[in-house]
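Hi R.,

Here's the chain you asked about this morning:
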Amino acid sequence: MLMIGLTLFIAFIGAQIAKYFKLPAPYMTGSMIGVGIFAALTNQAVMPSNLKTFAQIISGAYIGQQITKQDLKNLPKMALPIIFLLSLFTINTFLTGWLFVKFFHFDWITGLLSCLPGGIMDVSLISMDMKANAHTVATLQFIRLAGMLLILPYWIELFVQHFHKQTPQPKNETSVAKQKSSLQTTKQRKYFCNQLFILLVASLGGLFGLYLQLPVGALSFSLLASIILKLTMNTTPLDKNIRFFAQLIAGSIIGSTFTDDSLLFFHQLILPAALLLFNYLIVNLIFGLTIYRTKRLDLRSALFASSPAGATDISLIAGDLGGDMTKIALIQISRTLYTILVLPQLIQLFLSLCLAH
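And the predicted structure, written out as tokens:
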């Protein structure tokens, strides 16, 4: 227990340092890096791997609470662009994963999961659940997230200025922003009861998924339970600090598996990371130009909507730069749900059918 406490303390320090330097997803990346360095240098980091179920349940509960009835009402209008984008992401996942296996000698499960267009915490949890090389997946996911957030605004402005037919869209409030406003007016006692109720329902869903022994069952079923709860009872979203704690746990679990060989291996990920970023930028451009030419979205909004970075981060950046935040947020949420609920199952099916022979 003492070493678990020390590992969590180091994870917290790493998260605070990452937050200070404004790294993407600091509680996940900072804890992973901090604990990873500690583990590689001392071989003393301890974090029980079965705690990943706890982190998966919280992650599913948190994401599910971002869905609103308004999102469902807007879904039919954006159905074709969403289906087109998810198809592009699926093709890119399997194509880039194959390139990782063919040219960089990744195992199949690690190669494919490294290409998932989801959040770093969620994909890292999926990689642990599906027995992939979790720190390789987490490192590539971090590079993807950081790279997209850094490159994207300049990339988008380059093409918007080239076509220069765009007019800035009015800034819209996302459902997340509205929910934050609602959260501030909620009485404290009711607020804590709401948080506990969400976690209880999500936990029951997650444990049921675990019982079914499905790939990523705990995460998928806690997410579905949270969505149903949100739509039927209009619960207030979970406090971000709860998800931050889950990120500390997840980052600590991955970091504790690091060895000195793991650190030496990182330089070998430079080319795969560059390939991953390049392929996602190509997907971004194909989707953006196609949807723009069919007049379903302005070019700036279409490019932001197809960016595989954090849904909230992208929506807020897009709002600052003149994108349609409501439609962007809807497409980003759809991407997140698809990455968690569908793509891991497709990968598992692919591995069982194609690689078993």
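The chain has one domain: 50-131+143-250+272-354.

Let me know if you need anything else.
M.
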